[in-house]
Amino acid sequence: MELLVVDDEETLRSVVSQVLSADGFTVSEAASGEEALEAFRAGSHQLVITDIRMSGMSGIELLNEIKSHNPDTQVVIMTSHASLDSALTALRAGAYDYLVKPFESLDLISAVAGRAAEKARLVAQNRELLEQLTRANRELQEANQALKEMAVRDGLTALYNHRYFQEAFAQEVARSKRFGKRCSLIFFDVDNFKHYNDTHGHPEGDRLLKGLAQIVMSHSRACDIAARYGGEEFVLLLPETGKEGAVTAAEEMRARVAEHPFAGRETQPLGRVTVSVGVASFPEDGSEAQALLECADQLLYRAKNSGKNRVEAGGATPSSPA
C-alpha cells in the first residue's frame, strides 16, 4: 500500500518513514502540506500520515483537500499533547486516527498505520463490490429488457407479434373512444406467397418476409405499431389517423413493395412481389377493436378477389395497381 508521510521536521519524518517502510509500506515523503498535496494528486496514496502544525498549509487544511479529492483516503494526524483539541477537530473533519508526539513507542506508529491500512483496504473492497453489484444490476436490467422485447417481437421479422398487437390495438381503440380521436388499421398480406415458397423454397420466402418488414418499419412513424399477424399476414396500426390518411399510407406501402427488387420476383404471377391491403378506420368502420379487425380482413380479401396488388378501404375509392 502506498503511504505518504508529511512533516516539515526532517528527523521525525525520516523516523516515521523508516518504521513504516520496515512494515512493508511503499513510503513517499513530503516536507510541507503544499508538496504533499501535489504528490497526492499525482499519485495513488491510500494512506496519509501528516503533522497537524506546519509552516504554510496546515495538516487540517491538507486533510480537507485530500478528502475533497478522494474521500476514501485514510488520514492519520500527528499532534503534540498541547494540541489534542486540534486532533479532535481533525477527527471530526474525517481523519481516521491521530498519533501524539513524542511517540511513546515506535510500535504505536505501526499499530495505528496498520489499522488505517486495513480500513483503507476494506473501503476499497466495499467500493469494488458496490461497483460489481451495480454492473451486475445494470446487466440484469438489460437482459430483462431484452427478454421483454423478445416476448413481444416476432422472431423472424422483428415486428411486434400477434399477442402484443391485439393488446395495443384494444388500448388504442379505447383511447380513441375516450378522447374522441380517430385511428386506422392497415391489414395486408403477400399475394401468391405459396407460389413464391414453392418456386424458391421456404428460406427465400423467409427472406422476403424480412425484407417486407424492413420496408414497413422504415416508412412508419414512431407512433405506428407494425406487427406480423401470422404467416404472410401483417398489420399496421395508425394512431390518430383517419381513413384518408390511412389509405394514402397504405397505397404508398403497396407501391413500395411492388417496386422493390425482391429476389425471384419475375416468377410471380404478377411479375413482381405484391401485397393486397384492407383499411378500416375508427369510428366509421366499427366501434370496437374486433369489429375493425374483421372489417379490415374482409376488405383485404376483397382486394385479393379483385385482382390483388390493390388497396380496399370500404367507402373509399380503391387504388388501381400501378
TrEMBL record:
Which residues get modified to 4-aspartylphosphate? D51
Looking up InterPro entries in the UniProt record yields: CheY-like_superfamily, Diguanylate_Cyclase, GGDEF_dom, Nucleotide_cyclase, Rev_trsase/Diguanyl_cyclase, Sig_transdc_resp-reg_receiver
Annotated Gene Ontology MF terms? diguanylate cyclase activity
Q: Which reaction does it catalyse?
A: 2 GTP = 3',3'-c-di-GMP + 2 diphosphate
Stretches of the chain forming a coiled coil according to its record: 119-153
Mind telling me which Pfam families this protein's record contains?
Answer: GGDEF (PF00990), Response_reg (PF00072)
What keywords is this UniProt entry annotated with?
Coiled coil, Nucleotidyltransferase, Phosphoprotein, Transferase
Domain (Response regulatory) spans: 2-116
The GGDEF domain covers: 181-316
As recorded in UniProt, its EC number(s) are 2.7.7.65
The family database entries (PANTHER family) matched by this protein are listed as:
DIGUANYLATE CYCLASE DGCM-RELATED, REGULATORY COMPONENTS OF SENSORY TRANSDUCTION SYSTEM
By its UniProt entry, which NCBIfam families does this protein fall under? GGDEF
Protein name (database record): diguanylate cyclase
Q: Which organism is it from?
A: Geomonas paludis
Query: What is the phylogenetic placement of the source species in the record?
Result: Bacteria, Pseudomonadati, Thermodesulfobacteriota, Desulfuromonadia, Geobacterales
